[in-house]
Structure to design on (719 residues):
């Protein structure tokens, strides 16, 4: 579980030193209730790491753990080092010094995450006031500057607006400005574009990418389209643990884990002719407390074999830094071929895969019905 | 409302035209609080100016003129509302009595409100044993019989205005505490509080900057509604002799003094009673108006949604009728040129 892997140079080219190094992070609600079961990832300055997975896979809890915002009753173990600060085992008071100034958080719903009674400018200033980074007069100017930098037109006037006077996209921009107000090293974005419509989503994603050059971004989402747009590297989570991780292109083009392949297959392709129902993954995520010791995906996996009763480690598969936790990794998908001996240890890259759409690894292949 | 309905349905040309329908409602709501506010202001003014506008010294006994009725003149002194059993001017005493009533009621509301909100916010913010202790003590305070406590306080501390305030505050603070507690519990789960935690705000900062602004409007509403009750309670305490002591005038003590003369000198109880009634009524009406203004759920004008655009009553919009614009818009297929983007707004 503690296998490390390094990212290749990212497309942005601005990636610097590793800022965030998470190793074997666990979030537990009690014996046998590991909501996050061994998260390992690292992020460099200027890099966006997307954490993908369906509901209940522990991605939001991972994000909250890295911002110190876990609900009561959750205990964190493992290690998460952010710019020399160990994030695990911090008390509330110690966390306070990091929040805002080292870790910025962007919430999903800006409509509720902003105080309706305060002007947005005042809320951005508040972040600076809490950390005492600027004098009062400078805060005002810096808040307007931040608003302008996140693409809010007429920032001077907008700073005096209250949240209800702004559109959803504008509010999310304000949230981003707030998260950046303390110049954090890590920005944790928990599904920041889910509440937005698609055009605004694209703008906000571009902006987020633009404005976080100096920080590592941990981007939580379940939307593969968003991942493709923003991520430098992808971490796929399933039932609390990482099942696949690697650079964006590799994960999207040549998924090694059957879960990743299935996730990608269930993304509708607007260009392809409509072949029938969208592929789905049968079954559901095993609930907390009912996760056995083996591979968590084996009940839903088309490739599952006896060996899957034992948990596969996250092992590095390609020189590019891709890693998957599967005994039978391989992006060509067909279960028979995955059985090939030796694949578990050294699979290599086997030719051009069929891409994210229409992957034969899809567990379901219903092609009977037309539109419902 | 009916006028607005006919305009909207009858003309129904421009979507923006019949908007003023909501306006009169808001204004009438404002006007509703205006008269009670003016009455309360008048009482306050009288209380402040009592020494200036009182025709006589309220404690000056003129035994020759005792128990003279309203509009009576006794050796050159005109008593508009008559005199009491000691020949003191009822009007002057009623003026001075308003000072006691208003001062005690206001002081009680401020003291119990500040204390109640403070401990309620503490209980709601820290929860745990702090919350349990505060809320159980509040329950106990609510269950103590008010007059027994009043007698106890007066017996221990002696009767005085300050003790009346202490006594009332001891009984009334749980009202504010419960409201504040519930409001904090609700507010602390809201997104912006989480957001404030996420930017590193300390607890005290969050409470004062984010939680209190949510709690205070509720506390103000409770306070205005409590104010009337406190006027009555002060009068009750003074009536049974636990409030201000003679010869200081208070409406309660005036009622108490006058009750033995009800059959012969009606003015002794009528005028302080009317003064009390008027103030309590005005304060309560004001409290209702304040509550309606500050409660967002009540201030929304109850206006049914109207169809916008050309008024064709009873006809579904085009996109709903079969065959009007091809098939119903499906999420996957390319939307037709006439397919509206937000059907829910028009339905």
């Amino acid at each position: 579980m503690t296998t490390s892997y390094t990212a290749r140079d990212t497309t942005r080219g601005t990636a610097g030193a590793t800022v965030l190094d998470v190793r074997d992070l666990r979030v537990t609600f009690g014996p046998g209730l590991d909501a996050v079961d061994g998260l390992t990832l690292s992020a460099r300055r200027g890099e966006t790491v997307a954490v993908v997975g369906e509901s209940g896979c522990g991605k939001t809890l991972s994000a909250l753990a890295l911002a110190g915002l876990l609900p009561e009753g959750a205990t964190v173990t493992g290690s998460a080092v952010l710019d020399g600060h160990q994030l695990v085992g911090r008390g509330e008071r110690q966390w306070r010094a990091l929040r805002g100034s080292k870790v910025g958080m962007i919430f999903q719903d800006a409509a509720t995450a902003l105080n309706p009674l305060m002007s947005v400018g005042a809320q951005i200033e508040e972040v600076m006031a809490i950390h005492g980074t600027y004098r009062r007069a400078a805060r005002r100017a810096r808040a307007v500057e931040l608003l302008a930098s996140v693409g809010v037109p007429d920032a001077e006037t907008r700073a005096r607006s209250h949240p209800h006077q702004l559109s959803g996209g504008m509010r999310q921009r304000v949230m981003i400005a707030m998260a950046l107000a303390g110049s954090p090293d890590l920005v944790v974005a928990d599904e920041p574009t889910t509440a937005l419509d698609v055009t605004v989503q694209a703008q906000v994603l571009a902006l987020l990418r633009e404005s976080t050059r100096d920080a590592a971004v941990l981007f939580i989402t379940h939307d593969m389209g968003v991942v493709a747009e923003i991520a430098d590297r992808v971490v796929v989570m399933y039932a609390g643990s990482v099942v696949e991780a690697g650079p964006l292109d590799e994960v999207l083009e040549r998924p090694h884990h059957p879960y990743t392949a299935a996730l990608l297959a269930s993304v509708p392709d607007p260009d392809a002719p409509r072949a029938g129902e969208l592929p789905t993954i049968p079954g559901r995520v095993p609930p907390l407390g009912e996760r056995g010791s083996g591979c968590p995906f084996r009940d839903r996996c088309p490739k599952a074999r006896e060996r899957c009763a034992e948990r596969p480690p996250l092992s590095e598969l390609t020189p590019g830094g891709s890693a998957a936790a599967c005994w039978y990794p391989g992006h060509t998908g067909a279960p028979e071929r995955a059985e090939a001996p030796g694949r578990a240890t050294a699979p290599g890259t086997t030719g051009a895969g069929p891409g994210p759409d229409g992957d034969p690894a899809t567990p379901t292949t219903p092609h009977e019905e037309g539109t419902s | 409302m009916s006028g607005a309905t006919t305009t909207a349905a009858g003309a129904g040309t421009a979507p923006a035209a019949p908007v003023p329908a909501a306006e009169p409602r808001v204004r009438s709501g404002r006007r509703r609080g205006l008269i009670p506010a003016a009455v309360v202001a008048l009482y306050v003014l009288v209380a402040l100016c009592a020494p200036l506008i009182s025709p006589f010294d309220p404690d000056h006994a003129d035994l020759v003129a005792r128990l003279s009725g309203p509009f009576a003149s006794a050796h050159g002194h005109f008593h508009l509302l008559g005199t009491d059993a000691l020949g003191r001017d009822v009007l002057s005493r009623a003026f001075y009595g308003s000072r006691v009533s208003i001062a005690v009621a206001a002081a009680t509301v401020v003291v119990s409100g500040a204390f109640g909100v403070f401990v309620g916010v503490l209980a709601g913010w820290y929860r745990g044993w702090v919350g349990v202790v505060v809320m159980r003590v509040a329950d106990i305070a609510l269950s103590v019989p008010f007059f027994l406590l009043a007698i106890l306080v007066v017996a221990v501390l002696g009767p005085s205005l300050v003790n009346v305030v202490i006594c009332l505050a001891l009984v009334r603070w749980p009202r504010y505490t419960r409201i504040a507690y519930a409001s904090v519990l609700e507010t602390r789960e809201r997104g912006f509080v989480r957001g404030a935690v996420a930017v590193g705000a300390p607890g005290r900062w969050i409470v004062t900057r984010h939680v209190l602004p949510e709690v205070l409007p509720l506390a103000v509403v409770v306070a205005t509604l409590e104010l009337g009750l406190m006027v009555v309670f002060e009068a009750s305490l003074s009536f049974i002799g636990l409030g201000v002591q003679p010869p200081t005038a208070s409406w309660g003590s005036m009622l108490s003094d006058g009750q033995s003369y009800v059959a012969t000198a009606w003015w002794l109880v009528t005028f302080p009673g009317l003064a009390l009634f008027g103030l309590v009524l005005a304060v309560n009406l004001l409290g209702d108006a304040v509550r309606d203004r500050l409660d967002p759920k009540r201030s929304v004008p109850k206006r049914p949604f109207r169809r916008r655009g050309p008024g064709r009553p009873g006809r579904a919009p085009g996109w709903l009728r079969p065959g009007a614009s091809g098939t119903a818009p499906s999420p996957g297929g390319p939307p037709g040129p006439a397919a509206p983007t937000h059907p829910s707004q028009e339905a």
